Amino acid sequence: MTDKEYDVIVAGGGPGGIAAAVASARLGAKTLLIERYGFLGGAGTAMMVNPWMTYWAHFSDGKEIQVINGVLQELVERMEALGMYGHPKQRTAFDPEALKVVAEELCMEAGVHLLYHTFLGGVKTDESGRKVESMVVANKAGLVELKAKLFVDTTGDADLAAMAGAVVEKGRSVDNLMQPMTLNFRMGGVDVDRMPERAEISRRYVEAKTRGEIDCPRENVLWFYATQPDVIHFNTTRVILKDATDPWELTQAEIEGRRQVQQLVKFLTREVEGFEHAYLQTTAPQIGVRESRRVIGDYVLTADELLAACKFDDVIACGTYPVDIHNPSGEGTIMKHLQPGEWYDIPFRCLIPLKLDNLLVGGRPVSATHEAHSAIRVQPIAMAIGQAAGAAAAICALKDRTPREVDIRSVQQALTKQGASLGLDTRAF
């Protein structure tokens, strides 16, 4: 396949990109999905972020409502069929290898054109600077120019939007520092039944830090069960004061993450029951990035709106994940939860960048404050946002509309037909 012109081009094959490309292709748009690696999944595979964070609204009486469905649910069901989703003690754990396979199958079945090993290198706009005419990518063929009517930025770092001239921000308002990065890793050969309680492992970790045996600016040990019975997944390294959009600092972050992993492995095998014969099974191919650029769009979502469970007429996705801010400069994590049974809306206007007319943002860099971003950055929500961006892009491309001109009801109807949940049928609860 050597086509260079499409209705919709989706840049980035992570959770948001998968959902965007599938949604677009299913609506009949000729859709290209480009990905820098040789597989899809992004945060769930390349960064090995696991498990998926909650996508239910939980009521005080034990009742719950699943607020994100659509492409997310399709991926879940396909991984379940492979026996590679869920753990008795970790409901949303999944095998990254399974995600690679089922995401690829879903895209191909929808008619998405896939292009791997392709890195975004530049953007060309028209004379007004408001319309993206093409993007320049680098791959084995050299520099290649690709054209589309609509573009969807699902790079995670808003690379496409930034190159096109969108207004972007980074980090918290006081000093522009961003949430820390984490290199995820897994230990195999663990005798899970002999592991101490979480609090006890963290207590020993703090003692080891006090003795100078561990140099990691995280306050505790964060671990999860994996789908394999003797594997434990760690989200514990913390790399601070680095910018994931700076290639030099990103390189330093990768090196620092691996250094921290080695210290943690030594600590676990020496100090924690159940890990005496465990081994480092794998580190993620890429360090996990919580925050980098955020695009400023037609509406900026705030944490107060999320925590108040605000609803919007132009809702295109829902979420329940709490405000979760890892200290950008050291220890400490802030968590602020919603009231039981509540969820928040994400409005379509957050996906439309200022100063651009034919580009939509899918995934975590949508228009939100630093604090609000800390809640909506997780994979299930990124997937819901991506599905909305892809559906809207397809409708705009096929009807010759801009995102600001599109009838939001047509987007909402398309999403509902594709199985997405917008909370519109559950608001009586």
Automatic annotation (TrEMBL):
<protein>
    <submittedName>
        <fullName>FAD-dependent oxidoreductase</fullName>
    </submittedName>
</protein>
<dbReference type="InterPro" id="IPR039650">
    <property type="entry name" value="HdrA-like"/>
</dbReference>
<dbReference type="Pfam" id="PF12831">
    <property type="entry name" value="FAD_oxidored"/>
</dbReference>
<keyword id="KW-0560">Oxidoreductase</keyword>
<keyword id="KW-0004">4Fe-4S</keyword>
<dbReference type="GO" id="GO:0051539">
    <property type="term" value="F:4 iron, 4 sulfur cluster binding"/>
</dbReference>
<keyword id="KW-0408">Iron</keyword>
<keyword id="KW-0479">Metal-binding</keyword>
<dbReference type="InterPro" id="IPR036188">
    <property type="entry name" value="FAD/NAD-bd_sf"/>
</dbReference>
<dbReference type="GO" id="GO:0016491">
    <property type="term" value="F:oxidoreductase activity"/>
</dbReference>
<dbReference type="GO" id="GO:0046872">
    <property type="term" value="F:metal ion binding"/>
</dbReference>
<keyword id="KW-0411">Iron-sulfur</keyword>
